[in-house]
Structures are given as structure tokens and as C-alpha cells.
Specification:
- The protein has about 850 residues and is mainly alpha-helical.
- Among the domains are: about 1-140, no CATH class; about 710-845, Leucine-rich Repeat Variant (Alpha Horseshoe).
- It has 40 helices and no strands.
- The chain has helices at about 1-25, 30-40, 55-80, 85, 90-105, 110-120, 125-140, 145-150, 160-185, 195-220, 230-255, 260-275, 280-290, 295-300, 305, 310-320, 330-340, 345-360, 360-365, 370-385, 395-410, 415-430, 445-455, 460-480, 485-500, 535-545, 550-565, 570-580, 590-605, 610-620, 625-645, 655-665, 670-680, 705-710, 730-745, 755-765, 775-790, 790-795, 800-815, 820-845.
- The termini are far apart.
Amino acid sequence: MGGEIESHARVRAYVREQWNALSSSSDADQKITILRDVACLLPTSATKSHPEFKDTESFNKARDIFTKYHYSRFAGNLLDLLSHDWVSDLPRKAIRNVIDEFYLKGSPQDVFPILCTAVYTSPPSYKQSKSVFLLEEFFRLDLLKMIFLNQVEKHSVSTSETVSQAEMWDELVSLISSFPDKMANALKKQISQVFMPSSYIRIISTCLVEGLEKCHMLLLEGKDCSLEFSSQVLGKLCLSGYSETLWKHLLPSLLVFVRRDFVWVRLCERLITGIPDRCMESVIIPVLTSVPWFGMVESLLGDSVVHKHKLQYLLCTKLLLMRYFEQTLLLQNVLGYLASSHTRKPLFKSCMIRVLQVWVDGSAIKRTSYQQHYYLSKALLICLSFVKEGEQNDYQECLGILMRGMQSHLGSSDPKIRSLGMVVAESLTRTLQPHGPQLTFEVDKDESSAQLISLLVPPEDPHTQQAHRNMSGLSLAAGDHRGEVNSGDEVRGSKLQVTTQPDFKEEELDSDDDFQPYDLSDDIKVTEVMTPHYIRDCMEGLIKPESPDQTEACLRAAGQLIRTNPDGLTEISVEFMKILLHLSDEESIPEFSALRFQAMVALTTCCPAQVAEYLTGEFYGENYNLRQRLDILEVLSRAAQDLASPVKQGESDRPKAVQQVSELSSPESWQDVVRKRIEQKTRRFAKGSSQPKPVSVANKFAPVAGLFFFPLLLQYDRKQNTLDLLGRDSLVLSRLVYTLGVVIHAAVHTPIVRQMGATGLEFIWALRYHGDGSVRLSVLFTCAMLFLSVPANFLVNELQQEVTEVKHWLQDVAETDVNTECRKLALQALILLDAALTQEFQSATIS
């Protein structure tokens, strides 16, 4: 013990003496001599003797003590001493051989913090430039890799040394993870390419891989090793925002390692799961979105999800229920990893039940975005893909949860939500009770439903798929060696096997069977029903049809008859609309809905006052279903747009069919033909428009706009047995609000639009916080149409307080609404409002 204390005192005195001489000396040779003597005590120095410590034992002790206790302070003080004046009398070769090697041959875990601190804390100077140069050499000589390799070896140390080692690790981890950012802050545009994130992260990934390889070698030799330092660096770098770049370089090597042996599997698992809990999410998510198959996730994570609570919360709760990702691969990796082992199977089952409970919750459907709900639907379909044959009885609880929550989907006003409910319900009942009663719906096949159905097939190992492709390639190649004659014989043999029927004899076949049948695919159906030529005949055919063909003929002719024979239509328009409104498709007529809708729109356009008054009055009637009420709103909105649309000169009262007939019946004269040819080949260079000015026509919608709008607002808050707009029938309410917006926009430039705007703003203000997202979307649409149609001076002068409140509400919706479409539409409404107000203020300033 006394000898140890004496050695420490002797080394301390020697280092102090040399530093005092170095800092006060002005002789270049003396400086070089002092630095060379001190450099002999470096651990990588090739010198075996020292003038102060002459025997080998004392020299080795002095080297260990200097490296452990004095090197960091001496190297840091030497950097502070460096300046242009101090090194001006030193030969360039001496600076490179003595000063540079003093840092590049020192302990890497001590040198790296010293150089980084010198760069961060120094202004532009010789000291900073020298530190940057030394760091570049540090990276070039792979000394950063030595830090990782040194920390891999596990040594037996005392408690005090363990504390100091933990402090050193924290400092190194912090420096390594923040190195690119701090270097950029210190050097600005003068930063070296080596220190850029792309190059630096590639170096770090190489260090991590070589650290794993050294661990593997130590384990094969029966020695202890540690990946704690590497895990901390990995977690801190991912937490600092370099996760995608780091895993892009690191993951391919890990996927190769885990296919070699079980030792590599354990090493990769320790590297990933040994990260601190605060870094877990930033590390795991890039892994789950990049690993091509869920079987490899098991090799990287093992069974750590069972005993690590942070990882279990992340995989089983947060990634499934609190976040959503566009990549389907993440869900397949998470759920496939949980379902691929009997130890994790209980977690998989609980996850499936919890996801289903959230999926059927009506409150969650209304208050979450469609993307989140679609994400949950994908999770459920992926869960079903991992339910194996014979395990259906373990998941019968899911069927009860599904039946209790299907009403929330089928009663939703969003057709996409209803479609998701149908697809998931069909798939779940088909998988969990393949031999029992199943739910079936008429689902429109679109891209979303097709993607969901494709998830019922679990993904395969890409290496297996590649092997199958290689085998098929080999079989094809083998077939090529057999020759074309053999393959042709096989084809002919297969054809002969299909076409030949041994049960019949050739002489028994009728000669007429050799004739080819006629192609009837393009034939037109011929009907004996006469097409009606008068409106009353059309009405009678719809009321009392003699055959389905007569109903179809009357319905196809209704729209054209209404537009070509407007005379006398006013008296029978309401009766005709009543027939069309109550007409049902009992004969399954093709395009029934479109033909009926065209006829109703034509009738409303030709007789707007009478028909609009009837439809708005019947909208709140008691003996109507939701489909009929939606039809009323659709007809009113379409007719309002048609009435407000300007028509070309000469087309106001003449249908297109009549115009075409008149054009054909009056052939052009030769003068007209010549004049048209001259006009087509004439180039005009005169200024001004060569086209005649448009002729103004009366707005047909202006006199009847109020009939389309105000009656729809009278009884919206009245609850009936067949209609509850403020309750269960939010689908009709959203369509009503949308129709009001369309009518307001159709009434632009009309005198009554001011009153409609004030009334409409008061109406939608009461619905701004509705729980159904489709209603909020309709409210925002109507609000945007109001800003687009109502004069800006009326908004500023008469509705100033209301507009201010609406603006604050729109800003809140654009920032906090859970529905993505609502946020987008609120932002568009704000843009329209700001544009209208800006234009009004500019015009007021000019005047």
C-alpha cells in the first residue's frame, strides 16, 4: 500500500514539474524534449524506458498512473497553451510528430472529449483549427471504433471505479450522440464532410457492428463481454433524431447476423432491448417499419416483451391504440411477433380484444379520424390472419363484442366507416366461426376494402419467396432442356384430354353441332311497349304499370318529356313529383335511381316554385324514410345549381334535342360555308376582343331562392318517430346542412342572399361542435359557401360580431379537430374569409 502511494506521488510530482517547465519555456528544443518525455508514458508508446523511471516495473506503474489520472488534464492544458505564438518557433515536423501523436496515441475515450470540448468552447483560432484537424485524424485512424471495442470487454472493477466509469460513459454517450449538431453549431459553414450526419452515422453503425463481432468472438472464447455502452449510444442517437439513418446502415448487418446462429440472436437482442426505457420508442418504431418479416422481429427482440414493461406497453398499447402509421408492415410485424410464440400468445389475444373494443366503441368512431379507424381495422384483419385452424374457440368473446358494436358502424353517416364495418364484420365471422352463421353485406369493392381483405393472408419470409422463385426458375430451365417437341406434345396432350369425351361416339354426334353459334353480345333488346309521348301518359304508366317494361319506358322518357313540353306542366307538377318521390324499384330496373333523379330534377327546374314548396314541406313529413328525405335534399341542391347556371344565348327555352333537330332541318347555304372557311383561315392582329360581348340573361333562381332555403330551417329541432335530426339521424342532418350551403352559393349576386347568409350563419353556429364528423364537415362547407357568396360589405357592417366569433372558431378547428378533413376545410374557410375581408378593406380605403 505504501509503495502504491509513493508511486502516485512520484508521478504527480513529475507531471507537475514537466508542465511548469513547458508552460514557462521559450526554447523550442526544450519544449520538444519535454513533450517527448511525457509522451513516453502514453499506453501506445513504443518506448520501453524513461529517464525518470528507469527500471521496468516503476516505468509500467508510472505509465498506468499517468494514463488513468493525469493524461486528460495534461492534454487539455496543452490545448489551451497552443497558439500561433507558442508554436511559431517549432519545426512543422516536430508539431506533427510530437504534438499530434500526443493526442492520437493517447487513450481514445480520453482524447475524444478533450478535442470535442476544445472545438465547442473555443472561438475561431489556432486552437480550434488544431482540434478540428486532430478530430479528422481521429476518425481517419478509426480511433472512434476503439472506444466501442474497449467498452465491450468486461473487467472486474471496484465500486468507486464503477461510479467513475458510469460518469465517463454518460459523458461519452452524450458527446457521441450530439456530435454532428454541436460541430455544426461551432463550425457553421466550415464544417468538414466527415462530421456531417450522413458520414458520421455511417461510421457509428460500423463501430456498432464491429463491437458486436468482438462480443461474438469473446463469447466463443468463453470470456465475458458487455453491450451496455453500445446500447446507450444506439438509444441516445435514435432519440436525437438519427434513427432512420442509423437503422438504414445497421439493420442489414443485424438481419444477416441473426440467421447464422443462436449466439448472434442473443447479441442482437441484448443490443436492442438493453437501451434505456426513455429511448425505447425511437429505437423500436424504425425497426418495426423496416424489418421485412415478423419472424425476424422475434430474432431481434426475443421474449423481452414478456418481462420488459416499457416494451410491452409500447407494442401492445401505444402503437396499436394511440398512434397510427401508414405502413402496414409495422402492424404485421407487431402482431405477427406476438402471435408467433406460445409465451406471447396471451398478449396477442388481449391485444386483439382491446383493439376490437376500441373499434366498436361509438364514441371513439365519432371522435377519432378516419385514418385512425382504418388503422384499427387493418390491425383486426391482421390479427385474424394469425388465428390458426383449431384456435377459433379461444376467440369467441370477440364475436359478442362485434355484435354489440356493429350498430355504431352501420348507423354512421360516413359511408367509408360503414364500408369498414361491413368488411371487418364479414371477415371476423368468416374466420372465427367458419361452419356457423356468418354476416354478409353488399360491400362496394374499392381500393381500401381490397387492401383490407388482402391482409387476411399472413406475410411470408422473403427468403422463402426468393427460394420459390429460384426453384421455379430451375424448373423452367429444366423444361427448356427437354426441347420444344416435348413441350408441344404436352400441350397437345392436355388439349386432347380436355376436348375429348369418351362417353360419346363420333357417329352419334349431330351434324348441326359443328356450326358456330351467333354472337349475341351486341344485340339490342327489343320491347313491344310503346314509349309515351305525353306527360300524362307517362304519369299513368308509372302509377298503374302493365309490365316492368312499361315502367322502365315511362321512367326513361320522363325527363325528356318534362323538358320538351313545359306547357301545362305547372298544374300537374306537384302530382308528378309525388309519383316520382314515392316510386320504388320493384322490378329491378337498370339505372333506376339515376333515371328517377333526372326526372325529379327536370321537374323541379321547370316548375321551381310549386315543386320546391312541395318538397320542402314534405321533408319533415312523418311517412318518409331516410332515403326519400335524402333524395329531396339532393334534388333541391341539384335543381338550385341548374337554375342558377347561366345559359347560352338562344338556349334558354329550347332543349338540346330540339336544337339539334332544327339544325339538321335547316341546311347551310354555300355563302355560309364559304364565310366559315374564310374565318377559320384568317389571322387577325387587331387589338381588342373579336368575340361579341356576352348578353346578360335573367337569373332564374333569384325569384325562388327563398323557397329552397327558409322552409328547410323551420322544424329541424323537432323530434319525430321517423326523423330525429339532432339525435340518431345525423346523416340526414349533415346532408341538410350541405344542401343549405349549395343553395346559398347558387343564390350569389341575388338580393335575398344577405338574409340567407345571416340566417344560415345563425343556424350552423348551433351545430359547430356536433359529435359527428360528417356534420362538422357540412357545417364548415356551408360556412365557406357563405363567405364566398354573401357580399363582403354585409359581413363587415351587419355581421361583424358573428364573423369575428366564427373566425376564432375556425382557427380552433384548424388546430385541434380530430378529423383531418375538418382541419383542411376550416383552413380553406379561413382563407376565403380573409380574402373577402381584405378585398372589402382595400375597396373602402380607395373610396
